[in-house]
Amino acid sequence: MPTYLDFEKPIAELEGKIEELRHLDTPGDVNIAEEVGKLQSKADRLLSQTYAKLSPWDKVQVARHPDRPHASHFIERLIEDFTPLAGDRAFAEDAAIVAGLGRFRRRSVMIIGNEKGSDTESRVRHNFGMARPEGYRKARRLMELADHFRLPVITLVDTAGAYPGIGAEERGQAEAIARSIEACLGLRVPLISVIIGEGGSGGAIALASANRVLMMEHAIYSVISPEGCASILWRDGEAAQQAAEALRLTAQDLFKMKVVDTIVPEPAGAAHRDRAAAIDAVGDAIADALNETVGLDGGALRAQRREKFLEMGKTPLE
User: Fold this and answer.
1) Helix, strand, or coil here: 267?
2) What phi and psi, each to the nearest 5 degrees, are found at residue 24?
3) Which one, of 149, 148, 71, lies nearest residue 111 by Cα?
4) Distance CA 132, CA 134 (A)
5) Are residues 45 and 142 in the same domain?
6) pLDDT computed for residue 238 by the predictor
7) Does residue 134 come out as left (phi exceeding 0), alpha (psi in the -120 to 50 range) or beta?
8) Do 133 and 31 have their domain in common?
9) Which is it for the CA torsion 248, 253, 257, 259, positive or negative?
């Protein structure tokens, strides 16, 4: 049974009627196929219309949808001969970051991503995709390993933010994030990042300081969650919808501001309705980005990355 969001209630009602008709036990001389076809066309049309005019808050809900594909789904479909690599060689393994070597369309790559988990048990195991310092130190270690062996790096970003627990802060969360960003910017191999769900705060930037930043059509990317922003600015968590508007966190806003380079279209009704098609579209976009960057020398790649992020901080003099 699909999980429907609040704004999808009219769609849910239509699709519920369609399912009822399909399972209706009717005499052989009664043909309901025509009625089902009409309702299905209406549902498809309503789905397209609804997703064409989503508000920023609606986009937040879609980006957090429990059935949305996670990093493990992308790795399973896009990466051949995946060999997971673990540990930061300093403290521990962090399951919030999944990473390893594999082949993407016949090209050897290092792939690193936030993994949220798909059910209660796996979400707890992966800490809901919120990495601790050891997760970012693992990411840094593997980026440096990829750099040593001249392998492109692909990162899949899907996190509400870095884990804010006391233990994480005691072990140097801010320093670990800064070092991961430093590693991203210093790579002499192509780094392609994809915002596949939530891109939250420094926890996302730590993996997304890349030559090409791709963003799925209904993903979000911001300095803070709408709820966190609302609690700070308005002292009211109920103002999250207002915060979502103000944060300019949608792919469309960020593309206009040149924070992301490419918007990857999602299937009708978003990625959770057709995971395979959504993942394949991301694979095509990654392949295009790699083709644009893989021939550049290390110095050019580093300079390109540096200029890309310095440009974001510039403001007109007038």
Assistant:
1) coil
2) -70, 130
3) 71
4) 5
5) no
6) 84
7) alpha
8) no
9) positive
pLDDT (tens, 9 = 90+) of the chain, 318 residues, equals 678 888 988 898 888 888 877 777 555 545 677 777 888 888 889 999 999 999 999 999 999 999 999 999 999 999 999 999 999 999 999 999 999 999 999 999 999 999 999 899 999 999 999 999 999 999 999 999 999 999 999 999 999 999 999 999 999 999 999 999 999 999 999 999 999 999 998 999 999 999 999 999 999 999 999 999 999 999 987 899 999 999 999 999 999 999 999 999 999 999 999 999 999 999 999 999 999 999 899 999 999 999 999 888 775 544
- Residue pair 289/214 in contact (Cβ under 8 Å)? The answer is yes
Answer yes or no: are the C-beta atoms of 208 and 155 closer than 8 Å: yes
Q: How many CB atoms lie within 10 A of CB 93?
A: 13
- pLDDT at residue 167, as a whole number: 95
- Continuous H helices in the chain: 9-22, 33-52, 56-63, 71-78, 120-125, 133-148, 166-170, 173-186, 201-208, 226-233, 240-247, 251-256, 275-293, 298-312
pTM of the full structure: 0.91
Three-state secondary-structure class, residue 104? strand
Residue 98 in domain: yes
Let me know whether 34 and 96 are in one domain.
no
CB 194 within 8 A of CB 282: yes
Print the domain residue range for 27: 14-53
Tell me whether strands 79-84 and 97-104 are parallel, antiparallel or unpaired.
antiparallel
Q: What is the CATH number of the domain that holds 152?
A: 3.90.226.10
Distance CA 249, CA 257 (A): 11
CA angle 163, 305, 159 (to 5 degrees): 20
The type of residue at 259 is: V
197 and 148 housed in the same domain = yes
Give yes or no: residues 46 and 67 share one domain.
no
Asked if residue 45 and residue 67 are part of one domain, the reply reads: no
- Relative orientation angle of helices 201-208 and 133-148, to the nearest 10 degrees: 10
